[in-house]
Structures are given as structure tokens and as C-alpha cells.
Amino acid sequence: MRLRKKPWIPQALEDYRGKELLEDDLEQYKGHWSDQVLGGRPVHLEIGCGKGQFLAAMSQLHPEIGYLGMETQREVCYYAVKKLREAEIPNARIIHADAAHLLEWFEPGEVDQIFLNFSDPWPKARHAKRRLTYRTFLAEYKKILKPGGHLRFKTDNDDLFAFSVEEFKEFGLKILALTTDLHHTDILNEAQTEYEQKFSTRGKNINFCEVQF
Fold first, then answer.
1. DSSP string covering 53-103
2. Which of 15, 115, 146, 173 could in theory staple to 46 by disulfide, Cβ–Cβ 3.0 to 4.6 A?
3. Positive or negative, the Cα torsion across 157, 162, 163, 164?
């Protein structure tokens, strides 16, 4: 998700830092995301949370669960933290960080579930290692997830989906659910992202896979 630069956002974000927005000294939370940040709740992590629509919806549907949304683009974080504050959501936070460094911020087994929603497809073959479903990322997810933890993956990109399913299989993950047309199945789909709403409205199929580590 690329946005036109808005010079007022950095200053606006100052009011959210250390509250809805976490971006400084993230190592201090390692091993303590549940008790120090999320009120003792189980930790569910969305990597690439964008403007936070999915995260905000899920956290309201499940106040008993703690949600962390990770986003690399700081300006995009503004829209997510704004949603959390306006809805007075106590069980979610936005992390401005790059998922390439997950092991620096999470202890083994600290996360209960991971969501990957409409991740950058990195369509060129030479960029395959940057895809969030590439095996090196899967290895990191396995470390931070509790044994038997789940990953739920949604995308409109058919090529990325095919690639990802093969990666899941090669990595030895157990596939719990798989479809190339999520909205025409009875698979639970409690919240949609902005991208999901946009593409499904246009008639684009939504791919989904849930795996267990």
C-alpha cells in the first residue's frame, strides 16, 4: 500500500507514540507482549496490517484476544492507530517495524496466531525471498508461534497463492483449510481488509489458506 506523502502525518503520529503506536525499543517487550502490552491476553499478530481495518474489526469482535498489527510504512500506521483510538480499542496496538526482524522482538512460542492479509506479491522471481510466505519467513513464524499455532493467509493474487501453498507443503505444514474463492465457502471470515472489500466488490476471487505449525 503506497500513499502520497502527507507532510502533516509525522507530527500527528507523535500523539500516538508509546500508546497505540509502538516503534521505539521494541526489544523491551520481548517475552512480555501479552502481560505488558495486551493486558494478559493471547497474542495474535497481523503482519502487514495496512490501514488497520481488519485489526480493528477483529479486536472488537474478540475483546478476550490481544492483537498486534505490524506495518513497515510509518505514514500508513497513522490510519491504523487513528482507528484504534477513535473506537477506544484497548486490546490492539500497531507496531511500526519490518517483519524481517521478528526474532529480535518475540520470544519462541509467544504468538498464538499469525495473519497475512493481501501481502505484497513481489511478482518477479528474483524477489521471491521477500514474499512473506517464503520458507525463511515460515521458519521464523514457526519459532515465535506456540506449538500447533495457526497462520491464516488471504490474497487476491492467484500466482502468490499458488506459490505460497507450495511453500507451505514443502515446509511440512498441515493445511487446515484451502480455497480459491473464500467468499463462496462456509469458511469463517469474520473481518475483511480494505483490499478484500475492494477486490471482491469487483468480482475478484479471494484465495485463503489456513495452516498449522
1. HHHHHHHHH-TTSEEEEEES-HHHHHHHHHHHHHTT-SSEEEEES-GGGHH
2. 115
3. positive
Q: 30: alpha, beta or left, given left = phi > 0 and alpha = psi -120 to 50?
A: beta
Instruction: List active site positions.
Output: 120
Residue 3's pLDDT is 55
- Tell me, what amino acid is at 31? G
Q: Which cell numbers in the block locate residue 61? A: 469482535
pLDDT tens-digit series, residues 93-131: 999 999 999 999 999 999 999 999 999 999 999 999 999
Q: Per the structure block, which three cell numbers stand in for 122? A: 513481489
Contact 35, 13 (CB under 8 A): no
Report how far Cα 62 is from the mean position of its chain's Cα atoms.
Answer: 16
pTM of the model: 0.95
Are the C-beta atoms of residues 106 and 30 closer than 8 Å to each other?
yes
Length of the chain in residues, anyone? 213
State residue 5's pLDDT score: 72
DSSP 3-state assignment of 206?
Answer: coil
Residue 125's CB: how many other CB atoms inside 10 A? 7
